[in-house]
Amino acid sequence: MAAKTAGAGLEEQWRDILSVHARTMCEIDRALHPHGLGASDFEVLDILASEAPRDGDQCRVQNLVGRVHLSQSALSRLIGRLEKEGLVERSVCMEDRRGVYVALTHKGRDLYTEVLPLQRQALERTLAQP
User: Sheet of 88-92: strands edge to edge?
Assistant: First the structure.
């Protein structure tokens, strides 16, 4: 009987975590939608802004895999869409032709700076303790 109770408690905790995650992602999506971004788009821009903080800095796409909660193919499509929108640019690693770098463009850095407070406010609304 104790195993069922412990398992039920873990399952309830897991469902709570999923619920908070879903509410938070939806809130971020709503906040950023008027700017043409979703939560996953912002996550990539946010990581690039921290990993490559200066103009001209680059980040290997492989370093994004695992930090963004997307499959490698979905991440590649997302980066392709951000590139089409002029927010990032990709380049091939000259030392390892299989490697791909990605960097924020000026437009991407400006948009990131503009929407960062909106994303943080969404986090505050959904994650702040009452």
Answer: 59-60, 100-104, 88-92
Q: Please state, in angstroms and rounded to a whole number, the distance separating the CA atoms of residues 118 and 25.
A: 13
| Interior/surface letters 52-86, b for 16+ CB within 10 angstroms, e for the rest | beeeeebbebeebeeebebeeeebbebbeebeeee
User: Which tens digits make up the pLDDT trace of 47-68?
Assistant: 999 987 777 788 888 889 888 9
Tell me the DSSP string of 88-130.
EEEEE-SSSTT-EEEEE-HHHHHHHHHHHHHHHHHHHHHHS--
- Residue 17: what pLDDT? 93
Give the tens place of pLDDT for each residue, 64-98.
Answer: 988 898 998 999 999 999 999 999 999 987 777 67
Q: Are 46 and 32 in contact (CB under 8 A)?
A: no
What is the value of pTM for the model shown? Answer: 0.85
For the CA atoms of 92, 94, 98, 101, what is the dihedral angle to 10 degrees?
Answer: -40
Above 70 in pLDDT, residue 6?
no
